[in-house]
Amino acid sequence: MDRKHAELMLQLARSLDIAVNPSAEAVYDPRDDRVFVWATPDDHPRTALWEGMVPGMRPGRLTKPCGFAGYFQFDFAGIDEVYRVIIHPVFRGSVEDVDWIHSKLTSLAAAAEVAVDVPVVNFSVVEAENALEDEIRRGTERDRKSLLETHSRKWRIPTEEKTYYGFYVDGEAEIQVLSNRDPDAWYLLSPAQIMSDEFGWGDNGRASQETALCVLLDYFDETLPVEKLDTSMRFALPSKAFVNHTLFRKGMIETLEPGKAWVITGRQIKEWLEENAVVCASCAGSGTQPDGLYCAVCGGSGYRSDFFHVS
C-alpha cells in the first residue's frame, strides 16, 4: 500500500464527509493523514455504552445526530509507503469500538478499490513504542495508567466538549475525562478525598458522593480546599460543585448501575443543572452582592445549597 492508495481513500472520505453529506454512509471526517469516524443512532459500536449515548446524540454543526468514535491514521514509513494503519478509538480498551472503526476502514477501502495489505494496529501499540517505552516495561496496567495520567494533565478541555467515562480497572473505579473533539485529549480524575478516597456509583455511599463532587468540580473547573470544609463554613462556600453535589449524586450518580461502566456528557450535566439546580434568588445566580462581595445567602456559588433542598 502506498501514498497513492491512501490518497484514493482520503479522496473518497472527503466525498463522504459527515459535515456536508447527509447520506447514511457519510460518517467520515478526513484530516490530513487521519480519517475521523462518527457513530450515528443507526450505525455505531454495539455496546451498552453506545446504546446509552444514542438518545443524547445531536447533529451540532454536522449533518445528522452523531457521536465521535475515534479515527484511523495512515502511518507512512517513508515518503511513499504506508507502514501501517493505526486505529485510535475514543473509549480506550474497547475491542468493539476498535472493530467498528476497522469495519469503516475496510468499507472505505473496498469502495475506493484499495487493498489494505499492511498491518492495522491499535493506538496502544504506538503509545507503547513512542511515549511509554520505559514505563510499559513495568508490566502492569496500573503503572501504565498512572503514567498516562501524568502525561495527560497538560490537556485543558472546554466544558462543552467534555465526556465523563466511569469504568473499573483491577476492581478499582476510575473516571476518565475525554474530549468529544480530540481523542488525544483526555485525563483521569483523582478523588478529592473529602467524602472518600475512592470513586463509586449506583448507591448512596460516600464513594458515590465523592464521584458526584469530583465530576462537578471538574465540570465547573473548581478546586475545593479541604481546610475550608469545617461544618461552620459549608453554607458559605463559593463553590457551585459543592453546593450541588449531593443533589447530583441523588439525581444521576445513584441511578448508575453498580460495578458497570458509564458515560455522562457535559451536555447532559448542563441539562441536568438547568432542570434541577436551584439558582439563588438573592443574587439571581451571580454569586455577588451589589458591592461586589460574595452573596450572603449563597456564599458566592450562585445556587441554593443542596443542604436546604435535598431530603
Describe the 3D structure.
The structure is a single chain. This protein is an alpha+beta fold and 311 residues long. The chain has two domains: 3-130, no CATH class; 141-277, no CATH class. Helices cover 32% and strands 17% of the residues. The protein is built from ten helices and nine strands. It has helices spanning 3-15, 48-53, 95-111, 123-130, 133-136, 141-152, 206-219, 240-251, 266-276, 306-309; strands spanning 28-31, 34-39, 67-76, 82-89, 120-122, 162-169, 172-179, 186-188, 262-265. Strands 1-2-3-4-5 form a five-stranded mixed β-sheet. Strand 4 (82-89), helix 3 and strand 5 form a beta-alpha-beta unit. Helix 7 (206-219) packs across helix 8. The longest helix has 17 residues, at 95-111. It is elongated and about 70 Å long. The model is unreliable at 230-236 and 307-311 (pLDDT under 50).
Topology record:
Blueprint: H1 3-15, E1 28-31, E2 34-39, H2 48-53, E3 67-76, E4 82-89, H3 95-111, E5 120-122, H4 123-130, H5 133-136, H6 141-152, E6 162-169, E7 172-179, E8 186-188, H7 206-219, H8 240-251, E9 262-265, H9 266-276, H10 306-309
Parallel strand pairs: 4-5
Antiparallel strand pairs: 1-2, 2-3, 3-4, 6-7, 6-9, 7-8
Helix pairs in contact: 7-8
